[in-house]
Amino acid sequence: MTYQQIRQDPAIRTYIQQADASLMALGFTEHSFPHVTQVAEMAAYILRTLGYSPRMVELVQIAGYLHDIGNLVNRVEHSQSGAVMAFRILDKMNFPPDEIALITTAIGNHDEGTGQPVNEFAAALILADKSDVRRSRVRNQEFSTFDIHDRVNYSVKKSELKINEAHTLIKLKLTVDTHFGSVMDYFEIFLERMILCRKAAEKLGLQFKLMINEQQLI
Asked: What is the pTM of this model?
């Protein structure tokens, strides 16, 4: 089974759509196809750049595409419920046990509440997920009712995650419009995520750096 086959599966698409509908009802930012596709591609970029095999790259794409389906069950502990859902989906599709193990472990460890970069595969998914901060994920268009999550995401005009040529560091570079959200706002809600990104980078043998408006903060 390939990443493209996973993307085209009607049941999986339904689960992603309904999971995002639940988050929309709760006032969360977008977690639908733009987000999961971005995470899949960024996780693939990380492992491809670091020299992992084409199949490993494809498997991390699949993990990225499936990583948020647990929101279908509940936002709380969605990484664990998502891992269980992914296990059943992939098992029915006759994925080999070693591939199922990699994907479910990554999904079950991607969230900062309970997750840890237990292996390089999970680390790539963490970095890809936590770096997807952007204005287009904000659904609320009424500025006067923005909460801090809306302000922070809307303030990010550009987000870029890059590994240097020497493969010694990975840099998250954000361009932030401080009219909508301050750097302090970003740290108030994302500090735990950035600490997890640092641990994930270390698992991949990289140093993590966070740049906001050309200033290095981590």
From this structure: 0.95
